[in-house]
Amino acid sequence: MKRRDLLRMIGMSGGAAVMYQAMSSLGFAAESTFKGQPKLQGAPKNTSVLILGAGIAGMVAAYELRQAGYKVQVLEYNHRPGGRNWSLRGGDRFTELGGFSQHCQFDEGFYLNPGPWRLPYHHHGILSYCKKLGVPLEPFVQVNHNAYVHSANAFGGKPQRYRAINADYRGHVAELLAKSTQQGKLDDAVNKQDQEMLLESLRDWGALDKNLAYSSGIASSNRRGFDKDPGGGLSARPIPSKPVALDELLGSRLWSNLSASEIYEFQTSLFQPVGGMGRIGEAFGRALDGVIRYGAKVTAIQQDEHGVTVSYEDADKPGSTQKVHGDWCICTIPLSVLSQIPMNVSAAMTEAISAVPYAASVKVGLQFKRRFWEEDEHIYGGITYTDLPIATIGYPSTGFHSSGKGVLLGAYIWGLHAFEFTAMTPEQRVQKALEYGSQIHPQYAREFETGVAVGWHRSPFTMGCFGLWSEEARAKHYDNLCQIDGRIALAGEHASYLPAWQEGAVTSALDVIERIHQRAVAEARA
Predict the structure, then answer these.
(1) How would you classify residue 492: left for phi > 0, otherwise alpha for psi between -120 and 50, otherwise beta?
(2) What is the pLDDT of residues 132-170, one digit of tens each?
(3) Cα(411)–Cα(430) distance, rounded to whole angstroms?
């Protein structure tokens, strides 16, 4: 292999640009289209809109349409607002498909966000509603250089500090580039003056020594950490740490986690609602008091030229079927559930609804007797990444230096491992999260108190985590899914280029209500 090819491969593996481009093409990372207040002037008098689902998309639509003068009614399966915007707190109970019931026993003030848990600074839509509804926000710590990256097959299974792997990777790449520049092996891409500036920048970026080598010393230890930190008095002298060798570093594949924080949606600053993500849904619920009918399971959706009739079962009256009518209908029910509900829409929309599978995901919340990650390991917020099935450990971004208990996100699982965990009982999921997490934090066994585990494919109101578009499916079906079909339109994260994010739900809802408003106004004039 030529040196230039090696450098190109290292740059591709370490940079976020390629990853972001791939994610954008699949609709996982894109600029929000939020434009501010929707244009809904001149709403036709007494025009009614039925909204199915009190998740973020449904409640944004209801909030804005009611403000504009429409008659709005929302049907919601759960007995709470928010949908996947949800925080589990002590005392909460929920039952999965299959009958597994859990009773969250977290202490007061602690919670798990089974769904979304962070708000990027550029998701202007959801942030605007937090401000409008008075939902206080606080920083969410995405990157903590003192957290861990971990592989069961590298470094004897011992977790490594993020800062050390990050510094060593950059240092070795900088050294290779510097030596190539000195030896004139960059195909004469830069002149002599540019080479001198490049070398200076590489020395700074990679913490190289005077010989342009990445070696043990003060410069590298200021990035990766010292074996003995600087102090005061006679014991003040620091002891530099020794970088990991390049071949061992590359073989560990721990570098694959370094670019996560550079992806657009994970760049600082990020936020979280004070008290849990569910505070947003709760605030919408208060703003829409009297508009949402809870415990309503939609069983059929039928339209004609005069309007839309929705049949639903009332959870408080088992076996009874009721009907409600509206001039228009905005359906935000996840496609995984909607595909099982009779609805007379076009063949193109029907095919689109059935074309989008839903991602599998599992989250496990673990309460411990003390905040050992802070007290023992000095980890304040942030994320540890591992190749173990649990994938992620998230540390709370609030309550720093609190004495006593705390709750960790003990697992955030995707893909095949998520299917495996979903097939387990909740108790087994918690036990497995403890078993795997103990390989990173040995304190788990003696400090654990209680836990909850949510498998999204067992969630009766979503049957999956989010719409998992492929490029081919989006090219063929996306426009058909988003079109107004007669008097029915769909909205939600699945009807956006920001799937899995609340911003996708917000922008989808705002887009569809403007289009329905235009139709309603045109019809009234006619």
Answers:
(1) left
(2) 999 999 999 999 999 999 999 999 999 999 999 999 999
(3) 9
